[in-house]
Amino acid sequence: MGKMISDKMKRYTQGNSAIRAMFEEGKQMAKKFGKENVYDFSLGNPNVPAPKEVNEAILDIVKNENSLELHGYMSNAGYESVRSEIADFINKKHGTNFNESNIIMTVGAAGGLNVLFKTLLNPGEEVITFAPFFSEYRMYTENYDANLVVISPNTVDFQPNIKEFEEKITVKTKVVIINSPNNPTGVVYSEETLISIGKILEKKSKEFGTDIYIVSDEPYRELVYGDIEVPYVTKYYKNALVGYSFSKSLSLPGERIGYIVIPDEADDSELIKNGAIIATRILGFVNSPSLIQKVVSKCLNCKADIEFYDKNRRILYEALTSYGFECTKPDGAFYLFLKTPNNDDAEFVKTAKKYNILLVGAASFGCPGYVRIAYCVSRQTVENSLPKFKELAKEYSLC
Amino acid sequence: MGKMISDKMKRYTQGNSAIRAMFEEGKQMAKKFGKENVYDFSLGNPNVPAPKEVNEAILDIVKNENSLELHGYMSNAGYESVRSEIADFINKKHGTNFNESNIIMTVGAAGGLNVLFKTLLNPGEEVITFAPFFSEYRMYTENYDANLVVISPNTVDFQPNIKEFEEKITVKTKVVIINSPNNPTGVVYSEETLISIGKILEKKSKEFGTDIYIVSDEPYRELVYGDIEVPYVTKYYKNALVGYSFSKSLSLPGERIGYIVIPDEADDSELIKNGAIIATRILGFVNSPSLIQKVVSKCLNCKADIEFYDKNRRILYEALTSYGFECTKPDGAFYLFLKTPNNDDAEFVKTAKKYNILLVGAASFGCPGYVRIAYCVSRQTVENSLPKFKELAKEYSLC
Questions:
Q1: Where in this chain does the record put each Aminotransferase class I/classII large domain (chains A, B) (predicted)?
Q2: Nearest to B183, CA basis, from B360, B38, B310, B350
């Protein structure tokens, strides 16, 4: 038993069965109590459909374009026309100066991050991430035998802990991965934060005689509320690479479509571009799905109905804080980050389950003592959960 | 310069520039002589469009299915209904006994092979392949720090060299990758071949106390001519896993859609299934593209117009052999494998170029002295190339 899959995968399958157990438990609860009586805030899956322009674009393209070209191979980097339109779109929005050679289409952001990590990382090098962080970063890093270095959370405002960051950069540091708007906190990294990170990396790479790349994971870039702006990282540091996904902005997570940005200003830009194109091929992506490439290029100015998420956000934030819970005010993504009253997320998750509320403990994000509430759920789920959250608050004598 | 991408990728980018140079030269020749006067047999890209049922299915699904479910996340393994229909289809066709748990949807065959390799391979283990072989296998193997062991070609009929195979199996052998119909020869491995391979693996795995998996790479399974049958490998060896792609059968190479088959009979079947599902996630595929999953499940009984390839095959085979060239008779795929008269493929490729004929030397497939002719080109290209091939034959005094 178990002697034949790889040792690394054996470890992962063991870890994975815990997640699966939770998922199965949720399904069992829905069966037992009725789906409408279970408040499942555990999954970060869009619940707003794609804007109508997406399906309109599919119909239009399938009816009017040459089928051989539409479903055929193109350059591993993606259709030139699509990449060119994306470059123009970014330039217009952020005042950058990209062209199609700076854009490589990817199988979502997860595909893009793996392509960049494969291109950049030698075994034993280090990837720095700021807690709380998306736990898959650990696997993506281990895929290339590099080591993830976690900077402990700054629980004041969940901007990165800059002091510890500066201390933990070594001669082995190759990549700093950032994620803003952040999963799991919903916090947007400020311009000040990006300037600080950029300055420190310039100083440290000079000190060590190395180049250090920022990889900015941006699936939630378009999901921001009010008049918040998400600064574009390539403007603050020359060795900044971007991984974007349309999964959330267009509610297309199943279609696996995104892109990476490799600016000309980056050191070894040509090598990174060529490397990323080859990595796209040899990791088995070959190219990102062809029809959907063309679809997103026609929907760059569209967005899923983020007003819906915003209203969920405001209802939950106001209610939970009024019950006495301490929450980070989220400016983006669809997550609320809640401090557990007794500083024990495992215990709190268990207690919440008594009220049919399903949450994810943030120990798995490198930030124990907090829980993530994914509010990409129906309005009904949000509204019906409020009395239950209130009971939960009472159990902890918060109100 | 060049100090910042990974050492492995640096090596690949150097190798890749040779391929790019050839591709660029082809484009230059087309510009110089006119596209119709260049006979480009170098690329294995389908040139027959997808059957009309594919676009009909897209329109039907987009108009009638729930958009949130259609473009949303599903299990990393793919939609259960799609996997179930594929299992039924295989069972009906090959008398197997699969269900949806045996099928995992993948990003093409390249994605599927990487998922299986990631699941199975520890660093230092060995993957055996039979020359001539698809050269990307080397990169897929190196992705997981395993070593590719190449069995030299049997140039009599291009069935695998069974004797050398038996000798080269070691305690480190974890995977034997086979590819039938074969790229680059077009040869279909016979039932006798599969029986021999199975018997040897049973013997050797007992001898070494190991399990050895066959991974069958099958993008060309449906592209066979006449009444040739491609035996289904899981019927001949219990530890046989299949990687399938719809790229060629439905002419959808750009859409990146395929599946892997993990039979219950395989040792550690449950672990491999779970491992492969996790590998799908952590390699960054997450799942294969959602809309296209549903499309292929509605087109399982359709095929691109392979009569077209068959006619190209017969025209070229008859003409080339009549000019005195020695060719393997291909039963499948869209490749013709030609022995170079002076046993020097690099020289022959160069000489052919004088006649505007573009071929790929088979040294890159581990079989020097041969060239691959990819006949997935227009009828006009085939017909207009014949007088040029005749001149080429004359230059070598073959006719």
A1: 37-384
A2: B360
Q: How far is B159 from chain A (nearest CA, A)?
A: 27
Q: Which of B6, B13, B289 sits opposite A292 (nearest CB)?
A: B289
Amino acid letter, residue A388: K
The identity of residue A104, as a single letter, is I
ipTM of the complex in this document:
0.96
H-helix or E-strand spanning residue A94: helix A80-94
pLDDT, tens digit (0-9, with 9 covering 90-100), for A101-121: 999 999 999 999 999 999 999
What Cα–Cα distance (Å) separates residue A171 from each residue in A126, A238, B99? 9, 19, 51
In Å, how far is B368's CA from the nearest CA of chain A? 23
Burial of A398 (0-12, 13-18, 19+ CB in 10 A): middle
Residue B189, token pair as written in the block? 């491995």
- Judging contacts by C-beta atoms under 8 Å, the chain A residues touching residue B47 are 68
Burial of B266 (0-12, 13-18, 19+ CB in 10 A): buried
CB-CB under 8 Å, A73 with B45: yes
Q: Is the dihedral of CA B149, B155, B160, B164 positive or negative?
A: negative
Subunit contact A256:B112, Cβ cutoff 8 A: no
All structural domains of chain B, each given as residue ranges with its CATH number in brackets, are 7-49+304-395 (3.90.1150.10), 52-297 (3.40.640.10)
Start-to-end Cα distance in chain B: 52
DSSP per position, B115-148: HHHHHHPPTT-EEEEESS--THHHHHHHTTT-EE
Residue B76 in tokens: 């990393």
Contacts (Cβ under 8 Å, ≥6 apart) of B329: B317
**Closest chain B C-alpha to A192 CA, distance in angstroms:** 27
Radius of gyration for chain B, computed over Cα atoms and rounded to the nearest angstrom: 21
Smallest CA–CA distance from A73 into chain B, residue = B254
The reply to whether residue A9 touches residue B112, judged by beta carbons under 8 angstroms, is no
Going by C-alpha positions, the residue among A108, A140, A126, A313 that lies closest to residue A223 is A313
A306-355: pLDDT as tens digits: 999 999 999 999 999 999 999 988 999 999 999 999 999 999 999 999 99
